[in-house]
Amino acid sequence: MLSRYPGREVSISIESLGVTPASSRTPNFFCSEKSSVTENYVDTLPEPIKEAVKAKKAIEGMNRDQVILAVGRPVRKTRESKEGTDYEDWIYGEPPGRVTFVTFTGDKVVKVKETYAGLGGSVAETPQQP
Description:
The protein has a single domain (32-125), classed as 2-Layer Sandwich (Beta-lactamase Inhibitory Protein, Chain:B, domain 1). The protein is 18% helix and 28% strand.
């Protein structure tokens, strides 16, 4: 309700302006009830990748953006070429402690290796999950 002149009132309704309230709009990828575009994106991922992102783990088959979404940016990156194939390792963690190597060929993860590196250069393999 607007009151510019004393004693006179003007009412304007949203419907009379042809505007639809936000609650009745059809949600899309960028405008929905979810709290962020990231959540909307995660919902479009294949189930194994979606679960890995929620668990904050990298898995084989992810692309670079999905790895960053799941575990963040790496501490270091290394590149090498073996038998005509280019590999890039993204390294997470620092010794002493758990160190994870995420290996890419092109844009896809082809291997994820977790190790525990102690002081003095000792390395213990992380047991595989059944």
